[in-house]
Write a structure and sequence with these properties.
267 residues, 15% strand, binds nicotinamide-adenine-dinucleotide
């Protein structure tokens, strides 16, 4: 039986992916900084009627030692880790770069960049020893060089995630012959709590009407995107793979059909 670890899986995309992995008989290690959401997520994922098991481990991805503990708990419960997903993330307060405080800058870079760097580093080190495994990092706005006032720092972290993941995949070619696959998930726009707040939920984000319009055309609920991504992760055997939901073709089709397909996620 295979095992997946998903950071930030107390809600949102991570939680939706966890349910699909469990339905595919994967042992699931749920982990989040938010203990309450984590407990609720565990209760729900456990209800799915497959033989695989679920554990939960509280882990703040900005703490190297807590991620080391997360790996140890997963191995103690299930003997190894097949797929490790660095999914935990936070949004940027809707402010131009010059208005962000040092605390806000540090918080965003610590979670969105350093969290994924720590998770990738530790998972890679251990997967190299066990001789197999896949690591996924989650791309986002900025990964493809898109730029917008109010998302400069978030975009910077996601652009860095893209470079980092590709460069680590190169290291994996050299160090493991690509046996450890270091890969990317590109989910597009997801209608989750993420788009509504920043600073760990403390700062509300008021989405402008024109942003809502774009989200209504291009956005999807996270379960739709998880349904697309998880089977592809399970099948994947390639290092440096990239699993993309919102392709250019899909985005183009959405804009073309927007007049007939009225959607409103914000009613
Ligand atoms: N929502 C979108 O439109 C969108 C688009 C592209 C990429 N993404 C990325 O997808 C990932 C998941 O986003 P989501 O929309 O499900 O967000 P979400 O806010 O619903 O879930 C994120 C989870 O991460 C957890 N988390 C935050 N800080 C943490 C920390 N320090 N340690 C551990 N857990 C922590 C939160 O508690 C939460 O459960 C993020 O990396 C995000 O950047 C989101």
């Amino acid at each position: 039986m295979k095992t997946v670890v998903i950071t930030g899986s107390g809600r949102g995309f991570g939680f939706e992916m966890a349910k699909i992995f469990k339905a595919n008989n994967f042992n699931v290690v749920l982990t989040d900084i938010n203990e309450e959401n984590l407990a609720a997520a565990k209760f729900e994922v456990e209800q799915l009627p497959t033989q695989s098991k679920v554990i939960s481990v509280v882990c703040d991805v900005t703490k190297h030692a807590q991620i080391e503990n997360l790996w140890a708990e997963a191995v103690k419960a299930f003997g190894g880790v097949d797929i490790w997903i660095n999914n935990a993330g936070v949004n940027q307060p809707d402010k131009p770069m010059c208005e962000l405080t040092q605390k806000e800058i540090d918080f965003l870079v610590d979670v969105d960049l350093k969290g994924a760097v720590y998770g990738s580093k530790l998972a890679f080190k251990h997967m190299k020893e066990q001789g197999y495994g896949q690591i996924y990092n989650v791309e986002g706005y900025g990964s493809n060089d898109a730029m917008m006032t109010g998302l400069t720092l978030y975009g910077t972290t996601k652009r860095a995630i893209t470079y980092f993941t590709q460069a680590l995949a190169k290291e994996s070619e050299d160090l493991t012959d690509g046996k450890v696959c270091v890969c990317r998930l590109t989910p597009g726009i997801m209608i989750t709590e993420f788009i509504k707040s920043a600073n760990g939920g403390k700062t509300k984000i008021e989405l402008p009407e024109k942003t809502k319009k774009v989200y209504n055309i291009l956005g999807d609920y996270p379960q739709t995107i998880a349904n697309y991504c998880v089977p592809r992760m399970i099948k994947n055997t390639k290092n440096n793979a990239k699993i993309v939901w919102l392709t250019n073709a899909r985005a183009f089709a959405r804009f073309l059909t927007a007049g007939f397909n009225k959607r409103n996620f914000f009613e």
